[in-house]
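Two records follow; treat each independently.
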Amino acid sequence: MRHLKIYLAVTLIALTAITLTAQDKGHNRVGGIRAGYNGAALVMDGELFPLSEANPSFYAGFFRDNQIMRLLHFGTGLEYVQNGMRFNEENKRTLHYVSVPLNLKFKLGPVFALGGIAPSFKVAEREFVNGNSSKPGSDDNSNWFDAPLFLGAGVKILFITVEARYHWGITDVYQGFNNRYLQIGAGLSF
């Protein structure tokens, strides 16, 4: 089963990479890079994991937008995201994901709104106890997959984009808790 999960993850990442690097003969595709702040927490029924707080981190990746109609675009991407929770600076759990955001974007002039899903594959997990880093035991690991839904908005001026996206995890990733995170970042189009 583990080999099937790895095969599916590699296939999805490869297909996304092919889409991101495909040659364009028209002017209906825009690609680029983006990065920014990622504030994450583990949440159940709107409540944070007991005694935890938001875990500030970052995200970075590539994106590609394909115009479907004049005001409607389909976006794909490949991102590295750090999620998790923290109790304080020396005690936290960090979940490292490779995410494949898929979205529909409604664009009116320089302003846009978007929504979609971001299938995410856990590539690493670290637990920090009193500042010492270790891998969690096999019975304390988080789920290998997450599929957060997201909504966002932003503005694009020339080749610079500034956007905010909020993600709601819909799968149990750790002891019944889901990922929730806010991303605020910027991108460069080329």
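The next record belongs to a different protein.
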Amino acid sequence: MRDIALVAFAQTAHRRTSEELSEVEMLMPVLHGVLEQTGLKTPDIGFTCSGSSDYLAGRAFSFTLALDGVGAWPPISESHVEMDGAWALYEAWTKLLTGEADTALVYAYGKSSPGSVRDVLTRQLDPYYVAPLWPDSVALAALQAQALIDAGATDEPALAAVAARSRADATANSHAQLRGSVPQGDYLVRPLRTGDCPPIGDGAAAVVLAAGERARDLCERPAWIRGIDHRIEAHGLGVRDLTDSPSARLAAEKAGAFERPVDTAELHAPFTSQEVVLRKALRLGDDVRVNPSGGPLAANPVMAAGLIRIGEAAAGIHRGESDRALAHATSGPCLQQNLVAVLEGDPR
């Protein structure tokens, strides 16, 4: 297999609303940012892949408008996934493995502010048995949190500690939406309080992938993708154990996460209770730094937050702060779909 690495990462300063900006205007700075980091021009990119949601944008084929920010003329090799950008990265990684391209640009964006993201996300549910009941994303996460509490795996003070740690770590992240001390607030859906839930906000992110020696030409310390895999739970919530995530565990196993210890983990856990589930499934001990960027509890632009987890893990390797990192992305209710990537830097 070809060695493939992340060589550049950029993200927006995530905000509660960006109503004065179109998706293209929001994307342009991060697209220019990753190209400037590598010295590449648009014609140098062998493959481009994006992740977004037409349901979030409220119009069909909205991703085609975002191509204006990339520059689709002369014609480029391009693809799109109606998923978080982490799955666009997976497609780009596969493309580079085939040898059809040596470089890839991956980007993702989401504007949650124009509508009710809690209601929009109900469109992911089973259309016959669950969606007609309109349980929103917070209510479903509360079911999972209560299951964990009933099983003795956590309690409300422990969940509050997860939120406090994440937002304290985010003080060093200029891109985060929530930083420092944030009140736990009132219950949204018991047992989850406002502080247990991610902020609603708008944002975008982009990464550049490169293969082999091309990666070393573009980056002083590339973050090599040693393994990546994604798995899915059953669609029916009633047939799942919400206190565990077998799909995340299997994805981590197939990605090689358990072969050697990791020093950092960027987890796409939008709710505090989901970090409890993922720590267990991914076998993360207390010696592993979890979400040093603040994670999705500090900034959660829908459709970009998973790609940002991979980008943040790679950025730590670029800076020399990490040698072997795990990055995780999720989609769907209660950690339904899970992608795990293992990244490594060259020995120092």
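Discussion point: The domain at 4-114+200-218 is CATH 3.40.47.10 (Peroxisomal Thiolase; Chain A, domain 1). How would you locate this feature using only the token line?
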